[in-house]
Design goal:
With 166 residues, this protein is mostly helical. It has 5 helices and no strands. 68% of the residues lie in helices and 0% in strands. Helix 1 packs across helix 3. The radius of gyration is 26 Å and the shape is elongated.
Length: 166
């Protein structure tokens, strides 16, 4: 990571954390109220209006890039964590990296997931749960309880293709 990139990462993270605090919001509200109250003193002049317009535009313009940087990093970290959980679990490995698919491909996957969720809710209702939230392991076979699933998973040897280098 270059020096500027490392600096920008630290700077954007610090600014995002700092600006997200309630005291910063309250301070900005106070500043806007003070600006509004100072209007009669400056005769509500064009310069008086220009001060708030210019200030807020500059701050907003710069904050967009800082917040976007922080959100991109957080999103990438979340994708990496979820991909790793999928990779080491019994989940469908085809879901790894789907954020890089086209919108049409992603919509098809989401439609399939929605269909599966609807089917799961119908099965849950048939079991007499009347719309309650699905059980934690509702997608497991009826004969497979969480304890059995954990035992089976613990006893299963690691696959050769699941090394860190893969």
């Amino acid at each position: 990571m270059s020096g500027f990139t490392a600096f920008f990462t630290k700077f954007s993270t610090a600014v995002s954390k700092w600006t997200g605090r309630p005291i910063v919001f309250a301070t900005c509200c106070v500043l806007v109220v003070l600006w509004g109250l100072s209007g009669p003193m400056f005769g509500f002049s064009d310069t008086w209006q220009l001060v708030i317009n210019t200030s807020t535009t500059i701050i907003t313009f710069l904050m967009v890039f800082l917040i976007q940087n922080t959100q991109n990093r957080d999103s990438n970290a979340l994708h990496a964590k979820l991909d790793e959980l999928i990779r080491v679990s019994e989940g469908e490995n085809g879901f790894i990296g789907i954020e890089n698919l086209t919108d049409k491909e992603l919509e098809a996957i989401l439609a399939e997931c929605d269909k599966n969720a609807t089917e799961l809710r119908l099965v849950t209702k048939k079991q007499g749960r009347n719309g309650d939230l699905p059980a934690l392991h509702a997608s497991k076979k009826p004969s497979e309880t969480p304890a059995k699933a954990t035992t089976a998973k613990a006893a299963r040897p690691k696959a050769a293709g699941k090394s860190k280098a893969a």
